[in-house]
Design goal:
The chain has two helices and 15 strands. It has helices spanning 151-175, 177-187, and strands at residues 2-5, 8-11, 14-17, 21-33, 38-42, 46-49, 52-64, 71-82, 85-89, 92-96, 99-103, 105-106, 112-120, 125-132, 138-149. The strands form four sheets. Strands 6, 7, 8, 9, 10 and 11 form a six-stranded antiparallel beta sheet that branches.
Length: 188
């Protein structure tokens, strides 16, 4: 079970129990993904998509130092050509700690948005993706599943141990003839 508390995900494992094994299903992460086309470009590359010609010109980096959060915004400066008209758009990828946010930009004259999905500085590439408002969001759950065989045997062993201790105490205190005489004297 995964619950949200503000922006934090609370993970709670599910346990399926039976006589011969227990199954633990621990959620690790939920990814909210939209299906769409993705492509990779290096600086100066051009990509054709539908009636658009998209040129990756450069990267724009804004580093915000703050006492509370340290965030980086990376934008891909794109020249979008359609019908001999050019417009510059900048989709952003914002990183705060371990969290990433994508800020998409609507393509001129369309309902589709272009997103900056990833930046690889070592290769000098950016991964861009298209999403449409008609696409529905897909939730992907990443979970860890563990099988614990014969866990019920531990419970049975603990029960037998308690019964054994109770029998030993009963035999030691009550059924021993010498202890019976002492108990009878204390009662008188």
């Amino acid at each position: 079970k995964i619950e949200t508390s503000g922006k934090t995900l609370i993970k709670q494992p599910a346990i399926l129990r039976n006589w011969w094994r227990d199954i633990y299903i621990s959620p690790q992460e939920v990814i909210f993904d939209k299906p769409g086309s993705t492509f990779e470009l290096t600086k100066g590359d051009t990509f054709n998509y539908n009636n658009y010609q998209i040129l990756f010109r450069d990267l724009e980096v804004n580093h915000n130092y703050d006492q509370i959060t340290d965030s980086v915004e990376i934008g891909a400066i794109l020249e979008v050509y359609k019908n001999n008209e050019m417009e510059i758009i900048i989709p952003f990828l914002k990183m705060e700690g371990n969290t990433q946010y994508r800020e998409g930009v609507t393509l001129p004259g369309s309902k589709e948005k272009i997103f900056l999905n990833n930046v690889d500085p070592s290769q000098g590439t950016v991964q861009l993706g298209f999403d449409s408002e008609s696409f529905t969001t897909v939730e992907v759950l990443i979970a860890e599943i563990k099988f614990k065989p014969f866990i019920s045997v531990l419970g049975l062993g603990a029960l037998l141990l308690i019964i054994g201790i109770a029998l030993a105490v009963w035999r030691r205190l009550i059924s021993n003839p010498q202890n019976k005489k002492m108990l009878d004297r204390k009662r008188k």
